[in-house]
Amino acid sequence: MEEVSLHIDQLNYGYGLIDKVYSLRNQLVIVEQDIIGLFNPNYPMIQDLMFLCRHNFPDSCAFLINDLEQQSLIEQGCGLSTNSCRVYTEEGAILIGILINSEKADQISNSIIQIFASLREMSI
Questions:
Q1: Which residues, 6+ apart, have CB-to-CB distance to 105 below 8 Å?
Q2: Could you tell me where the DSSP H helices lie in the chain?
Q3: Is a pLDDT exceeding 90 seen at residue 22?
Q4: 39, 62, 84, 124: which has the fewest C-beta neighbours closer than 10 Å?
């Protein structure tokens, strides 16, 4: 187990991804505000992109959470800044990176894939 923890720490790449991944509806997700925080420094139009994604991504990539799910996120240590919250699955987070289409977004997307895979491996 310690070996997997070291591996996850190495995968953070300074993004602190491990602290941004939560469990909801039997899947791993990242909160929208954290997605914006990951990509915003490198893509100033992230707010516009996220607005488009909110209305075009299928539920398998992103979904609004209800009050019980919001409470679950808070109990998992998520510092939500809004009552209405959208979360992104691994696929949704990667799609954001693809839409941004930059080298930095590719690095973040690769880190997301590796963190999600490592967390799934730990839960087996």
A1: 39, 42, 43, 96, 97, 98
A2: 2-11, 32-39, 46-56, 67-75, 90-100, 103-123
A3: yes
A4: 124
